[in-house]
Amino acid sequence: MNAFAGTASYYRRFRPGIPVDLAVLLAHEAPTASPRRLLDIGTGPGLVASALAPYFDEVIAVDSDQAMCAEAEAVLRPALSGGQRLQIRHALAEDFEPPAGWQPHLVTCGRVLHWLDRPRFLDRLAEYVGPGGVLAVFSDRSLWTAESAWQQAARAVVQKFLGERRRAGDGVFGPPGPPYEEVLRASAFGEVTTATIPVRREWSIAEVIGYLYSTSFAASHLFGDRQDAFETALAKALVPFAEGGFLVEDNTFTVLTARRPSSMDR
């Protein structure tokens, strides 16, 4: 099941990227080398790879959705500087194989680890990430889990149209499983550190609608012929919260950086 089928164009236009502070943190955590290599898992339209590309010489961006890969190509390719190398790979994260001898210094998983077979993915990473390599797992709260009054109002409208349970495309969102930190510590990437990075955003009502259509729980096709009715109901619910035409969101990125111990640490 592709939970994000049909969302790629909305994802590119309406999903917020990562803040500068997060990009700087991840670039600082990754080993320095030449060429310096980034592997971005679940790249979507390349939001994370775009923010980190200035710090790396070679970037491979992987996604299981062909439409997302096309959006990433359109975003990332024109922004390359002289000498930088980019590959966009259509593959499952658990099955991805890098070019022979290619070892990433930083592997990023932004808003994606939940969707993966985590033990299988981490075992596969251990096959090609060398000692000292860093895996970064990070996400902010989605509108479904956020707690501000306007976000709760928006979620209530989604639930009125699609049901109380959180959707995941044509299915439902699965259980969370063990804490990510626990999973990482049990893997080859056992040196785990945690950080949080706050972010404040302002949304127009039209942008909230576009954001929702980028999600697995409110993709536009899930509403069928009720899409116009949904947009009308959502706008009506959000207008009382919009100050100066905008809705303010205070969010936080939770960041786990998991390092594979170098040989001297073993």
Automatic annotation (TrEMBL):
Highest taxon listed in the record's lineage: Bacteria
> Which keywords does the record carry?
Methyltransferase, Transferase
A single Gene Ontology biological process assigned to it is: methylation
UniProt-listed InterPro entries: Diverse_substrate_MTase (IPR051052), Methyltransf_12 (IPR013217), SAM-dependent_MTases_sf (IPR029063)
One example of the protein's molecular function in GO is:
methyltransferase activity
The residue ranges of the Methyltransferase type domain are 39-135
Q: Which CDD domains match?
A: AdoMet_MTases
Name listed for the protein in its UniProt record: Methyltransferase type 12 domain-containing protein
At the highest ranks, the source species' classification is:
Bacteria, Bacillati, Actinomycetota, Actinomycetes, Kitasatosporales
